[in-house]
Amino acid sequence: MAKKYKTALVTGGAGFIGSHIVDALIRRRIKVYVIDDMSAGQKKNINPNAHFTKMSILNPAFPKYLKKIKPDVVFHLAAQINLRQSVIDPPADARVNIMGTLTLAHLAGEIGIKKIIFSSSGGAMYPSDAKIPYSEKTPPGPISPYGISKRAGEMYLHYAYQVHGIPYVALRYANVYGPRQNSKGEAGVISIFAKQMLAGKPLTITGSGKQTRDFVNVEDIVRANMLAMNRKVVGEFNIGTGKETDINTLFKKMAKITGYSLPARKTPEPPGEVARSALSGKKAKKMLGWEPKVKIDDGLKKTIRSFQKK
Ligand SMILES: NC(=O)c1ccc[n+]([C@@H]2O[C@H](COP(=O)([O-])OP(=O)(O)OC[C@H]3O[C@@H](n4cnc5c(N)ncnc54)[C@H](O)[C@@H]3O)[C@@H](O)[C@H]2O)c1
Question: From the CB of 17, is ligand 1 less than 6 Å away?
């Protein structure tokens, strides 16, 4: 079990999901190093018991840093996370998401890293005409530079496993929401709605609002990461609820919790938006022993409360 690993590195550990993983590892008494360039990370997210270094994974000093700390296990989250931004500037996305992950995969064998847990994306991985909910058997068909760079990251880790024997788990998340989330991630709509509703300001739904997403709570994501660390498994796993929630329903749920009474404005949908999305968690249940536990109504209440406190 977890005792096997004494030290962990969390790249992007000052960000939304990474900081929750750091907290969980520290609760398990693992020595945690955090590297984050603070392009999106926040100082207040960083657990005071973590050993923090402000540095980009693209910095030429990153390999030296990695060799110095020699972590047993690496949770790799540092990334360009914005799908729309990846369409605007694909090379910038590739630099962090492909070159950054490749640097880690390449050095892992030399350093003796025992396992890499990679934050991949299920929402951006599968072709939109595939059967819903997407399973890992669905052949990947990313259509955004972000989805392509996440797939490339998985493939480099697979290479490092085959050639250098470094086990990896790529967790393909659905749309992750919860306290500390920002508006850029794949469930950014929840933080945008929460802020506007709490401020009593008007808000906009892009498109008809009938488009669906699979919202998975960050507590469930952290548990998937801990299981991926502890279980003797390798490969790609979808981490989603399998349930679709459309944006109009999400709006109604959040309006009820916040007491918001303004109607939502509708604007035309930007090109390239997926109409429906949901991930089957069956493989994760079978091989990781993972199941989502947080119900969306409870998760939304907790998330909105955290925005209220802010
Ligand atoms: N939020 C979601 O719904 C979702 C869904 C699928 C996958 N993911 C993946 O999960 C991971 C974490 O996402 P998040 O939502 O917590 O985003 P986030 O922006 O809060 O976290 C990413 C962190 O990485 C840091 N970072 C960015 N570039 C870096 C670099 N070059 N060097 C070092 N640090 C760098 C940022 O400062 C930030 O703190 C990402 O890899 C993302 O692609 C997120």
Answer: yes
Distance 171 CA to ligand 1 centre (A): 13
Ligand 1 in reach of 16 Cβ (< 6 A): yes
- 91-139 pLDDT, tens digit per residue, is 999 999 999 999 999 999 999 999 999 999 999 999 988 999 999 999 9
Taken in order 133, 135, 141, 144, the sign of the CA dihedral is positive
Q: Does residue 146 carry a catalytic annotation?
A: yes
Strand partners, 53: 35
Does residue 204 sit in the same domain as residue 143?
A: no
pTM, rounded to two decimals: 0.97
Segment 200-218 shows an average pLDDT of 95
Q: Does the CA dihedral 125-129-134-139 come out positive or negative?
A: negative
Domain residue limits at 21: 2-176+215-240+280-288
The best mutation among 17, 150, 217 to test binding of ligand 1, ranked by most ligand atoms within 8 Å of the C-beta, falls on: 17
